[in-house]
Write a structure and sequence with these properties.
Shape: globular
Distance between the termini: 112 Å
Strand order of the largest sheet: 5-4-3-2-1-6-7
Order of helices and strands: EEEHEEHHEHEH
Number of domains: 2
Number of strands: 7
Radius of gyration: 31 Å
């Protein structure tokens, strides 16, 4: 498929995706996985979608929803149905065919590996994440400008995060794009093509901007967590009060079933006055 516009904005999940051209009719918007949950409505003539994760029917999934018939990452239990419907309206790209989404398009990996071959002979293979496929395809299609928003891959990988080995691949393709004369747009908040300090420089303005952005996002998320915590505290108090009322009703009004700690069992003649203890004579 050939490009429809001069610029494409590739959009990921972090908060600075809001800087992308959602409202700009001159930009294509490319999304991935289940990001549609968090995106505004984009006209079909500007939209493409990527889901390169494979899935196997019947595999175990640790989720409250049944995602056994789709990729492991999405939050939407109807994700496969969404892909199938969208593939009839917009380009939806897979790596491998799936019978559940018959209208999906397959990335031509032979062509892509040949295009990015480092020596012109050895097939390329440095694809470590979906964003790299997206940037690579945009380069091949001849876009004049490529924006990448909502993508950080900030983890170093020491804690087991896959981002540690995925980020360099993205940066490779961004470098290729610049070398090909394509303008690259990245928000200041993004980690891509950023370093805390340039070697020998102690100012680090980009890093300072990044830290401020992180603090803003974490402050917002902390507020959300605190609000949820307050709601849970209130819910705990409400349920505790309801339980205490139930305990009171049980102990005061309900038959004791033989438990002496509960209310009196209504045995025969229980309505009659029970004589008090006899006091010894003076």
């Amino acid at each position: 498929m050939s490009r429809r516009r001069e610029r494409v904005d590739i959009v990921g999940f972090t908060s600075h995706r809001s800087h992308s051209g959602f409202e700009n009719p001159d930009r294509e918007i490319w999304g991935l996985n289940d990001l549609y949950i968090d995106m505004p409505v984009i006209s079909n003539d500007r939209l493409r979608w990527f889901q390169i994760h494979d899935w196997n029917e019947g595999r175990p999934v640790e989720s409250a929803t049944d995602l056994t018939k789709g990729p492991v990452h999405p939050r939407d239990p109807s994700h496969v149905e969404w892909l199938s419907a969208q593939a009839k309206e917009i380009p939806v790209y897979f790596l491998n065919p799936r019978p559940e989404v018959p209208d999906a398009r397959l990335l031509d990996m032979d062509a892509m590996n040949a295009y990015f071959s480092l020596d012109g002979e050895t097939p390329f293979g440095y694809w470590t994440n979906t964003i790299s496929y997206m940037i690579g395809l945009a380069i091949m299609e001849g876009f004049k400008e490529i924006g990448v928003y909502g993508v950080d891959m900030m983890m170093g990988g020491g804690d087991g995060s896959e981002y540690g080995y995925q980020r360099p691949s993205c940066e490779f393709f961004l470098g290729w794009a610049r070398g090909a004369g394509i303008k690259v747009h990245l928000p200041a908040e993004s980690d891509l093509l950023k370093t805390a300090y340039a070697y020998g420089d102690t100012q680090g303005n980009d890093f300072r901007t990044k830290v401020k952005s992180m603090l803003t996002e974490y402050t917002s998320r902390l507020g959300q967590v605190r609000n949820q915590k307050q709601q849970m505290v209130m819910a705990e108090a409400e349920l505790t009060g309801a339980k205490n009322f139930g305990d009171w009703v049980t102990r005061s009004w309900m038959p004791g079933d033989g438990d002496k700690s509960l209310g009196r069992v209504p045995e025969p003649n229980a309505h009659k006055e029970v004589p008090g203890p006899v006091e010894p004579p003076l």
